[in-house]
Amino acid sequence: MTIVAEGVLTPLVELRDVTRSFVGPPEVQALKGVNLSVLPGDYISIVGPSGSGKSTMLNILGLLDRPSVGEYRLAGALTAELSEDDRAAVRATSIGFVFQAFHLMPQRSVLDNVLMPMLYSGVPRGEREARARGALDRVGLSHRVDFMPGTLSGGEKQRVAVARAVVSGPRMLLADEPTGNLDGTTSGEVMGLFEELNADGLTLIVITHDAAVAERAARTMRIADGRLSEVA
User: Fold this and answer.
1) DSSP state, 3?
2) pLDDT tens string for the chain (232 positions)?
3) Are 168 and 175 in contact (CB under 8 A)?
């Protein structure tokens, strides 16, 4: 966590007048002059309907895409200056992703699925299994380490995905429609897990179309037609 001289936290995420355009015809502006500041430890939601720019926002924040115009600073560093290899390294060490579709490896055990990201994040080999088991214990799945994903419920699969996302110790977790495949009760359990992680200091950004999920965040942003605004 970086502190400036005046004692003000440096934003972990800062978007300045970010526009993302896709070549046509006609040209499509998926994001239009977006400004966003996220402090370390913040919990924000970005809510909007399909086609509003949510996926483009996720791709920009996760360093999977670049703005056409504007700046994205991550922990004060200008991301435009990063090579593709540098961006991949930042994703591996600093950004965790949780998706609606889980994206687990079906032929690998729960433990292997959580071990996988540490192959790329620089965690020493001797620490990996203990960290994976610790992450699974954190999400309440220590009794499922040897199970295959196909034998798990939807909620358990999402918990494995959360363990995989946080095992390398990221600074920020991006969750894209994380409850989209879950029933109401299980959705509440998964959101409760996210909130526990946030309470432990993890910066959390949840992208969703579900107003009830969005309202759980400390700050709610609305995106519509590529424009972002804060909900009072």
Assistant:
1) B
2) 333 444 567 899 999 999 999 987 888 999 999 999 999 999 999 999 988 999 999 999 999 999 999 999 999 999 998 999 999 999 999 999 999 899 999 999 999 999 999 988 888 999 999 999 999 999 999 999 999 999 999 999 999 999 999 999 999 999 999 998 898 888 999 999 999 999 999 999 999 999 999 999 999 999 999 999 999 7
3) no
Closest alpha carbon to 210 in 218, 220, 202: 220
Cα–Cα distance, 154 to 108 (Å, whole number): 17
| 3-state SS assignment for residue 15 | strand
In the chain, where the domains are located: 13-230
Contacts of 173 (CB under 8 A, 6+ apart): 95, 96, 97, 98, 165, 166, 194, 197, 202, 203, 204, 205
Domain 13-230: CATH superfamily is P-loop containing nucleotide triphosphate hydrolases (3.40.50.300)
